[in-house]
Design goal:
4-stranded mixed beta sheet
Length: 350
């Protein structure tokens, strides 16, 4: 009896969970053509205006009243970006997106496996209104309205300088809105996609506020790690980071080159001054030596050869006192005070 009781509880829980995790997409398509095909596509975050066959998940056909319905349990439990659309011309085998500002044949929306969305009959307008239970989709609609408000001033501006200013303002205001008002990381990612398309230099913006992009990456990692949204954004950020590093490397390379040129110029100046100083010193020595008498020159030469006063006196056949007198005169004229200084001063003099 207990086993049957537990089995009933288990089946009840399983049934309630399975019923809860089921999506529903339905509505009306007001068209003269019957049995029109309606497609459901899964989009990457930067594919809002792109269409291809590999995006399509499911398709169904409208009945005689234009009603269509898709139900199941095969969508992701996480919020993702989807598109519902139907070709204007069924005879055309290709996929078509049409949007003239008033009417369009598609609708992009955020959705999960446990949500429902309904498109009521709106005369000739297809997918113009929707009733979506997904809260992130409602947040995205508000974000799109805010972006449109920011871009209106940009579209009305004609002056190039003013346009640049508006773009800066748009970037600043949208990032501030993302930080303060948006909670869902996918909605922030979609806002980034629009930011990327409406600012002139994403690289410059990234370098100016890297913390904004880093925070968005961390939020995506928490909810979409391993999923395409996170991997796409991570790749874009890696490219921006690599470009920034290359730019920094080129800048430092130029600085190092400039410093190298300046160092070479400085060494050249020092070397020229050294040669000039050496030449001047040599000229001073020449001038000083030119004042020496013949006997003083002989004594200076013998001192440089290492002879003592007694040996000099014997070599020149003069007294030791006379040698001392000549040496004192030598010291005075050459502005030195001992034999070592004399030797040092005259060692390179011929």
């Amino acid at each position: 009896m207990k086993k049957e009781y537990y089995l009933i509880i288990f089946l009840s829980l399983f049934y309630s969970v399975s019923c809860y995790s089921q999506y529903s997409i339905s509505g009306y398509l007001n068209s003269k053509e019957k049995n029109k095909t309606v497609y459901l596509s899964l989009l990457k975050y930067n594919e809002e205006n792109l269409i291809s066959t590999n995006q399509i998940l499911f398709s169904t056909q409208t009945d005689s009243t234009g009603y269509f319905e898709m139900k199941g349990k095969l969508l992701s439990d996480k919020n993702k970006l989807y598109r519902i659309h139907s070709n204007l011309d069924e005879k055309n085998s290709g996929l078509q997106l049409f949007d003239n500002g008033k009417n369009k044949n598609y609708h992009n929306f955020i959705f999960s496996n446990s949500d429902t969305i309904f498109f009521p009959n709106q005369n000739q307008e297809w997918f113009s209104h929707s009733q979506n239970s997904n809260k992130a989709d409602g947040e995205w609609r508000k974000s799109l309205a805010y972006e449109l408000e920011l871009l209106e001033s940009y579209n009305e501006t004609k002056n190039m300088e003013a346009i640049q200013q508006v773009k800066k303002s748009y970037s600043k205001e949208l990032k501030l809105y993302c930080t303060d008002s948006l909670k869902d990381p996918l909605v922030k990612l979609l806002a980034f996609s629009h930011l990327k398309n409406n600012i002139s230099d994403l690289q410059k913006d990234y370098e100016k506020s890297p913390e904004f992009y880093s925070k968005m990456q961390n939020e995506l990692k928490q909810q979409y790690f391993g999923a395409s949204y996170y991997l796409q954004f991570q790749e874009e950020l890696s490219n921006l980071s690599i470009s920034s590093i290359k730019k920094s490397y080129q800048f430092h390379k130029k600085i190092n080159y400039l410093l190298g040129v300046l160092a070479l110029m400085l060494l050249t100046v020092v070397f020229v001054l050294f040669l000039k100083n050496k030449k001047q010193r040599k000229q001073v020595i020449i001038n000083e030596v030119s004042t020496l008498t013949n006997q003083e020159e002989k004594i200076a030469k013998l001192i440089c050869e290492g002879l003592s006063n007694k040996e000099i006196a014997s070599t020149l056949f003069i007294s030791s006192s006379t040698v001392k007198t000549h040496i004192r005169n030598l010291y005075s004229k050459l502005e030195i005070s001992n034999r070592q200084q004399l030797i040092e001063k005259l060692k390179n003099h011929p």
